[in-house]
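INTERNAL AUDIT FORM
Audit reference: QA-55
Scope: verify that the stored structure record matches its stored sequence.
Auditor: D.O.
Record contents follow.
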Amino acid sequence: MTGRVAVSKSIYESDLNQAPKETAGLTIPIIIDVEASGFGRGSYPIEVGTVNAQGDAHCSIIRPEPDWLHWDDKAEKLHGISRQVLEEHGRAPIDVARDLNQWLAGQVVYSDAWGNDISWLGLLYETAGISQHFQLESLRSLISEEQMTIWHQIKEQVIKDSSCQRHRASCDALILQKTYVITAQITQAKGAG
């Protein structure tokens, strides 16, 4: 296992996350997902995954800093990443922050857990000693009421059809993006019909 996993699959190329071919008029959001050592005070980011509008995913695990001590065994059971794996294979916060800036510079990036992810990304960039060069927004700000009525059902189907590991950052980002695209297409089709 390496600390940097650049997923070469695109959701437009793989069966696992085959995005619908017709996306005319639909802006596909860039999605970010952050996995953490736990929740609450003292928690820190352990993995960051992104998927761009073309469906290309990037993912990095993060080596904890010496003063990042909080660890929740329940969170580990969810994401499946041990602290030992992070210490042995994780990348330095500065390297992960620089890569995110390179991949996402000047973009608006969406998260389904904005309240948590903004604080974990803030800690990542503060620790790295550099500025974040992308804007983080809540995915909810893009989702219409019509999409929300079918969101959970479609997301569950996307998860069921997926063979990627849930609660890993890039996989969760891909699931969110595909769910957004499908729900947007369904609601657009209903509106046009």
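Auditor finding: record pair retrieved intact. The mean pLDDT is 87.
Action required: none
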